[in-house]
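Sanity check

After download, print the first record. It should look like this:
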Amino acid sequence: MKQFINQKEDIVTEAIEGTIAASGGALARLDGYPHIRVVVRSDWDKSKVALVSGGGSGHEPAHAGFVGKGMLTAAVCGDVFASPSADAVLAGILAVTGPAGCLLIVKNYTGDRLNFGLAAERARAFGHKVNMVIVDDDVALPDLPQARGLAGTLFVHKIAGAMAENGASLDDCTRAATRVIANSRSIGMSLDTCTVPGSVKEDRIPQGMAELGLGIHGEAGVEQVVSNGARGAVVKVAEKLAATMSDAPHAVLINNLGGASVLEMSILTIELLGSVIGDRIQLIIGPDAMMTALDMHGFSVSVLELTQDDTTLLAQSVACPGWPGCHSIAPSVILPLPDGLSPVRAPASSHEPTRAFLTSCCEVLIAAEADLNALDAKSGDGDTGSTLATAARALVGAMDTLPLADHTQLYRAIGLELSQTMGGSSGVLLAIFFAAAGDASSSGKPMPEALQIGLNRLRQVGGANPGDRTMVDALLPALNALPSGLAQAAKAAREGANYTATITTAKAGRASYINPDQLNGHVDPGAEAVARLFEHLAR
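Expected structure tokens:
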């Protein structure tokens, strides 16, 4: 089982129970499990217009996560990707509707339209005032007569919900909802399909491709396009939106479809703000998971043309866990480094043999990126190759600023560069290594001895010793053999690196947290990098 669920028949009711339990008493549910699953505001007194929405589950936090003061009054939950029954919708309407009436907010899917529509008719027969609006914000297929309802639905929840909270009439809330729907546009993109509980995952998106214009129920997108990173994805999405947008200010809602990381969503956000529609974006909601498609590795972007009081209504505070807030777009603020952190650098100087030597070493590490990452995935977090390659690229880029003709200062300059460009502990340790080597060189020590002193300082601070399954296992024997020539140093480094594959108990680094069975037979990536570097020098 690849999901943290119990029985698939119970996932919706158990999820509702978890949502209510975590609400601090703000949410309640109607009786009637398992056929009637309605989440309501526990403080509701029927004195204002009620807002009811819902649909199939699997879109969490939609819709129960938007029940609360200032947004929905009730959410009606169906099975995963399946509309709730008309009886369930009717139960929700009857539970929350008072003299002010009820507005149903429905996404444009056949099952939702039919069940919510029938429930509305039955509620009217009971004497209740009930209006219904249909959200159809999808622009993936502009000529489709029945566009789907996507995350733009949340604009309707928020603006109509704020108006209802402020005491607006049912007709005013309905008119506002209708206007917001007409001014909303959405489109999504995904790198993978979702996993429906109890079903075999469909594997229809080839490696290196993405689906553009997909729905929120795992259905296929309008087209498959080459996946070209965050920037390429945003370009395609923004082009589709731009063709439907006016030049007026807009709000944007950046939605995680469930499987994208927070890191990815932040990158997509900055790309979107710099895209062809960026200058039209005045307000931003997210990035966050608001209307998901289970675990789909994708995102959607919804835009709303701002008219009338939309800006104020979007910014109005709410009391529901799913709404991340709405913020104005403001220029990034960059503050200067505090005194003492701006590095003092030695003057740059030119020396072509040294430049060629350093460049060739950097190229070795860059070429080894994928191999070292693969090794690190066996014993760490899979980024050793990327960390070293990033530092190597930065060092190549900084070559014109280095004191290449002054090797004493060069050690220190390399250490400073690595401390700023290498992530994690590796950058700090190598900065210590080169700084100590530079100090030793400035006191007259020859290169082999200066490097030994640098290694001793690295071991002292980092706590790594031979046999601990780190780069020290290759670097120490290599430096010990260096007075005998580079060939001997390379041989010693390789033997030391290979030895790490037999060490099943790491005593330093992230490998120390790994099960011994996972370490056996796999060379430490740091030691491998050292061995490859010395083998290159020996050639």
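If your output differs, re-run the checksum step. Summary of this record's structure: The two ends are 51 Å apart (CA to CA).
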